[in-house]
Amino acid sequence: MEVMSEDIFDVVNEHDEVIDQQPRSEVHARGLLHRATHVLVFNARGEVFLQKRSLKKDRQPGVWDSSASGHVDAGEAYDACAVRELREEIGLQLEQPPERLFKLEASEETDQEFMWVYRCEAEGPFTLQPEEIDEGRWITPAQLTRWMNERPQDFASALLCIWRRVGHLPGCGVA
Q1: What pLDDT digit, counting tens, does each position of 87-112 carry?
Q2: Between β-strands 8-12 and 18-23, what pairing exists: parallel, antiparallel or unpaired?
Q3: Domain range summary for the chain, segments of one domain joined by +
């Protein structure tokens, strides 16, 4: 029987300083502070690409999320994670990290993750990773804001927080 190795994350303190390393399951079970990245991909028409999280995901399955997102692995930098997640989740190859927009504090809304939020431009089409993503779609910022206001339960809590900070909804703290 093949045993899959579990992802190891850096555990951080309230100042986002690494204090330990733990397996993913421990980090989530114990609510330890850790790191993640989210990337918003916009096309030339100003639409943002969203992914619908796979129903197989252990956290927030079946909800709409950022274009690409994921945990920062132990010893990995935020920028390297953003580039890796774009490649792994939607097949977008970047030569350099996308533009950093802002950093969010770890909170219940972010699933105890400090997160850097990035943006980049690409037209697609994208190659969606089926283990991670059930579907993807382009949407205008106005349509997304309206949808979030009407049905916030359709979205990952972190994306709601990110979209507030982008300026389209009120609230949410910045690191």
Answers
A1: 999 999 999 999 999 999 999 888 89
A2: antiparallel
A3: 8-166
Cis upstream peptide for 23 (omega within 30°): no
Q: Which two tokens stand for residue 132?
A: 């991670």
Cα separation of 103 and 122, whole Å? Answer: 22
Question: φ, ψ for residue 75 (rounded to 5)?
Answer: 80, -5
71 membership: H or E segment, kind and range: strand 68-71
Superfamily of domain 8-166: Nucleoside Triphosphate Pyrophosphohydrolase (3.90.79.10)
Taking only the tens place, the pLDDT of each residue in 132-159 is: 999 999 999 999 999 999 999 999 999 9
Could you give the CA distance from residue 58 to residue 72 in angstroms, rounded to a whole number? 17
Token couple for 67 = 């274009």
What is the average per-residue pLDDT within 13-21?
A: 96
Q: Look at strands 48-53 and 133-139 and give their pairing.
A: antiparallel
| Enclosing H/E stretch for 139 | strand 133-139
Rounded distance between C-alpha atoms, residue 13 and residue 116, angstroms: 16
7 vs 5: CA distance, rounded Å: 7
CB 71 within 8 A of CB 24: yes
C-alpha span between 69 and 37 (Å, rounded) = 5
Closest by CA position to 97, among listed 110, 87, 105 = 87
